[in-house]
Design brief:
By secondary structure, the chain is α+β, with helices and mostly antiparallel strands. The chain contains eight helices and 13 strands. Helix 1 packs antiparallel against helix 8.
Length: 339
């Protein structure tokens, strides 16, 4: 009985333990399933997040690669642009150098005309200056005798000489030093000499007289105009010739040429004689800017105190153009290039 009671108790204990274990296992299994389910859900979320991250990575990678390609392209373009800029800078500098050379040449030409406008400071012409003293008469006014200038030139053995004989060049404008050395020259050389001698006498008059009290004479003609310029062109019946023209007002730019020269008095520098009035002669005509010549006999260049002005009748622009105009144009071009 005692053993049976013990066995019964043991059976009960075992049953209770088995039941407890069963319940524990059931509960544990439910918890495990729950944990597994939750873990699975977490895993799915992680997988979804991973896929999202992977998608983002792929997008960023593509964008990065695109940016790299763009950067490489920009580097190449930058290098190309840099090379082009360098070449452009070199060409611009060459252009500026050419413009500077051109300006230097033009300025030298302008200086050449300034240096040959008067014999006053040329040592070789000392005797000529002394001889010219007799060509001035003074009283209430100062009179310059143009025929006397011609006589002085003859006395000093200045005569007409072709450029081909003296310089070996077909047409060459000599400076006053060379005119003296070679005892003369052709028509433009004589004009340069005659004007320089006249300007010397004019300056002598202006020491004591104002311009309105200075005049010139040649034979029976009185000339009150006292600014003298060299005028050259195709004269009728000559093919090409140069005279001197005396004007009332100064020619200070190419814009003054037509208005002043058309009123000028023409004198032959090789003998000092009166030729005629520009506005009343059939020998030659002068045309203004924008006026194409209607004759072969017209002035094609005028030499002023510091410039050579050429009448250009060809192309779209018909105009008088001088060294000062070229200098102004080159300055404008240079400013444009430098900007």
């Amino acid at each position: 009985m005692k053993f049976s009671a013990i066995a019964t108790k043991a059976s009960i204990v075992i049953a209770v333990l088995f039941l407890a274990i069963s319940i524990f296992l059931i509960l544990s299994n439910a918890q495990l399933k729950k944990e597994i389910f939750e873990a699975k859900e977490g895993s799915q979320k992680i997988e979804q997040n991973f896929k999202a991250l992977k998608t983002s990575y792929e997008r960023v990678k593509k964008e990065s690669e695109a940016l790299k390609e763009l950067n490489d392209m920009l580097k190449k373009e930058s290098s190309s642009l840099s090379a082009e800029m360098k070449e452009t800078e070199i060409e611009l500098q060459k252009t500026l150098d050419r413009l500077s050379d051109f300006q230097s040449t033009v300025q030298k030409s302008i200086q050449w005309f300034k240096a040959n406008v008067n014999i006053e400071n040329l040592s070789k012409y000392e005797k000529v200056r002394n001889d010219l003293a007799k060509c001035i008469k003074t009283k209430n006014e100062c009179e310059i005798d143009l025929l006397c200038i011609n006589e002085v030139n003859k006395e000093n053995h200045f005569r007409y000489r072709y450029d081909g004989d003296t310089t070996g060049k077909a047409d060459f404008l000599k400076d006053l030093e060379l005119v003296y050395k070679q005892n003369g020259g052709d028509c433009e050389d004589f004009s340069l000499l005659f004007r320089a001698e006249y300007n010397y006498l004019l300056n002598k008059c202006m020491i004591n007289y104002t311009r309105d009290r200075i005049y010139s004479v040649t034979e029976d003609t009185r000339i009150d105009e006292d600014y003298m310029y060299i005028i050259c062109g195709t004269f009728d019946p000559w093919l090409g010739h140069c005279l001197v023209g005396l004007t009332k007002n100064p020619v200070e730019s190419s814009a003054d040429i037509y208005q002043n020269i058309k009123e000028s008095v023409m004198v032959e520098p090789q003998n000092g004689q009166f030729v005629g009035y520009m506005n009343d002669t059939k020998l030659v005509k002068i045309f203004d800017d924008g006026m194409p010549p209607d004759t072969l006999h017209y002035l094609d260049f005028v030499i002023t105190d510091d410039d050579l002005n050429i009448f250009y009748p060809y192309g779209e622009t018909v105009a008088w153009v001088g060294y000062h105009d070229f200098l102004e144009i080159s300055e404008s071009l240079k400013e444009g290039v430098e900007k």
